[in-house]
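Ops channel
N.P.: pipeline sanity check, posting one input/output pair.
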């Protein structure tokens, strides 16, 4: 069996991954706060952990992996959005949840096995808070329940490698007068009359008061409910390491000291745009939907698989730079793959899981998700399938098997090449090419008789200029759109 090696933020080391229960490998990833369209940066953890999910399913068996990603559907930002737009909170959260799933679906991301919404787990959060109060890890102050960092001082900050004193000195913490230590964080806070609220935890026989949970407690409560007190992998963007993940660890380990919460912590680095932080003030902020529909940089729709391709070129632990140039190159490559596969009719009807996976791609992914190496290896497969003399020396059957193996290996990275090839085949311009194949073949027969090749040469030159590869043989004429194929140049050509 392939050994997966993962870098663990908690130990700062790469180590072989050994699941707690190989029959049920468990992963939790922090999901979005649902009040608006996902921006391109939000898509990075989705794609990164989708590749990990696919790899785990391949290595451990599809039925032996449980992937949970939450939706934060109660939060100050959501309440603010409802105030600004006059829309009910439910409408905002359900609509943006749908948008998120649609957008991520376009990037080829599988849906996790569980997608809990915070508001569906309030009783579990309240129970956890009550447990923390009872064990002295939390206290009540002015309608709030706060986690007492001093009750866990030795361990708090281990994940991000800081001590409590450093954090106090360096962080912009909210020094609310009711906090015992400025680093203490909110587990429960009072809700205003017109804000969403629930019955609060009970402490010393009295309810703390109508309110809502702090942000961090939801991940602790939901991961415990769905994955147990010890699970294998916890993931999210590097911006969440502190304070979010640090606080999750404190709460979960104090509430369930018998477990170890998450064993492996994985964090993706941030996404930038053309070398700069993506931000509204810099005017380089755009959503995934903007990009898909041509409202992003470049001004042209960028298909989901192109976005995925660009993402996977950079290792998840490195900052990734989105550029319009990278998107153009990725699109050219993927278009070429689709064209190349579209000629094999039988292949288009096959199940992509039937091909033999390229083990060197599996191994690249198993090495702490080396997606850029996996892509390089996939490109070599494409080159082989495309034009190597070795490939052309194979029997039809073997050529077909090699194409299927390419398709299956691409599927492990989340690319549906058969779907892309079908779309390619059905594009009107491809049908037009069939028309040019016929006219060129006809002109050639004529020219062989008249010895006047002017018309053949004219057509051929125009096709080549449009980026079409013209293959003429005894069997006939084959027109294959090349990587720089520009259908517009064929307009008006007869
Ligand atoms: P949020 O909705 O802000 O809580 O973020 C949802 C997820 O997107 C989290 O895992 C964040 O770490 C991640 N994220 C936000 N901005 C970026 C970015 N620029 N690059 C990569 N990941 C990001
Ligand atoms: Zn979380």
């Amino acid at each position: 069996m392939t050994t997966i090696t993962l870098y663990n933020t908690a130990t700062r080391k790469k180590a072989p991954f050994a699941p707690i229960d190989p029959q049920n490998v468990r992963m939790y990833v922090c999901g979005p706060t649902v009040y608006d369209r996902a921006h391109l940066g939000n898509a990075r953890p989705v794609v990164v952990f989708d590749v990990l999910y696919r790899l785990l399913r391949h290595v451990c068996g599809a039925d032996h992996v449980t992937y949970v990603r939450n939706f934060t559907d109660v939060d100050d930002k959501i309440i603010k959005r409802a105030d600004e737009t006059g829309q009910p909170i439910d409408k905002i959260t359900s609509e943006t949840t749908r948008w998120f799933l649609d957008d991520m679906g376009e990037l080829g991301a599988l849906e996790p096995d569980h997608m809990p919404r915070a508001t569906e787990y309030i009783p579990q959060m309240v129970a956890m808070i009550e447990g923390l109060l009872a064990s002295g890890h939390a206290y009540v102050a002015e309608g709030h329940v706060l986690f007492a960092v001093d009750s866990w001082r030795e361990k708090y900050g281990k994940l991000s490698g800081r001590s409590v004193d450093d954090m106090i000195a360096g962080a912009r913490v909210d020094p609310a007068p009711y906090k015992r230590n400025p680093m203490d964080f909110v587990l429960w806070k009072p809700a205003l009359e017109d804000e969403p609220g629930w019955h609060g935890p009970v402490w010393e026989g009295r309810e703390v008061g109508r309110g809502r949970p702090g942000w961090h407690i939801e991940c602790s409560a939901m991961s415990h409910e769905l994955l147990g007190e010890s699970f294998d992998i916890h993931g999210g963007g590097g911006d969440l390491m502190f304070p979010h993940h640090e606080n999750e660890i404190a709460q979960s380990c104090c509430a369930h000291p018998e477990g170890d919460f998450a064993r492996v912590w994985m964090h993706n680095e941030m996404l930038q745009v053309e070398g700069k932080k993506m931000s509204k003030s810099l005017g380089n902020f755009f959503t995934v939907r903007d990009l898909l529909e041509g409202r992003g940089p470049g001004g042209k729709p960028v298909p989901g698989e192109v976005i995925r391709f660009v993402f996977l070129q950079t290792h998840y632990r490195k900052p990734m730079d989105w550029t319009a140039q990278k998107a153009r190159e990725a699109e050219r490559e993927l278009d070429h793959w689709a064209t190349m596969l579209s000629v094999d009719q039988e292949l288009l009807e096959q199940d992509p899981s039937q091909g033999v996976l390229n083990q060197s791609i599996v191994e690249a992914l198993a090495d702490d998700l080396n997606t850029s190496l996996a892509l390089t290896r996939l490109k070599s497969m494409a080159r082989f399938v495309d034009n190597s003399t070795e490939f052309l020396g194979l029997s039809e059957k073997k050529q077909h098997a090699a194409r299927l193996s390419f398709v299956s290996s691409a599927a492990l990275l989340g690319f549906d090449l058969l779907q892309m090839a079908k779309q390619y085949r059905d594009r009107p311009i491809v049908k037009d090419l069939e028309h040019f194949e016929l006219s060129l073949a006809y002109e050639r027969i004529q020219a062989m008789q008249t010895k006047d090749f002017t018309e053949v040469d004219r057509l051929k030159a125009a096709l080549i200029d449009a980026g079409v590869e013209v293959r003429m043989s005894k069997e006939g004429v084959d027109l294959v759109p090349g990587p720089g194929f520009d259908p517009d140049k064929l307009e008006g050509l007869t």
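N.P.: looks fine end to end. The chain is about 45% helix and 15% strand.
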